[in-house]
Write a structure and sequence with these properties.
The structure is a single chain. By secondary structure, this protein is of the alpha+beta class. The chain is built from four helices and four strands. It is 42% helix and 32% strand. It has a four-stranded antiparallel β-sheet.
Length: 97
Amino acid sequence: MATYVILANFTDKGIHDAKDTINRADKFKAMAANASVTVKHMYWTIGRFDAVSICEAPDDESATAFSLSVSARGSIRTQTLRAFSLDEMTRILGKMV
């Protein structure tokens, strides 16, 4: 499974309904499970992003479809980053010419 960091910002709708963020997080996890994505960690943050999630997905397409599905609900905008473990990065560096 590949690892992804999903950065999220509340939309106007999302901040208006901020008190519902815990319930939305539960829905986020349920949507993830239905998309073959596992939410490993979820954090609410201070700064440039309002939330950060660490997820695992079988491939880039699944992770992207999940992020798009979440954003389409209108409460957050997402930015998804592919993250590489130490072992993955070691293999990548080993392929450098």
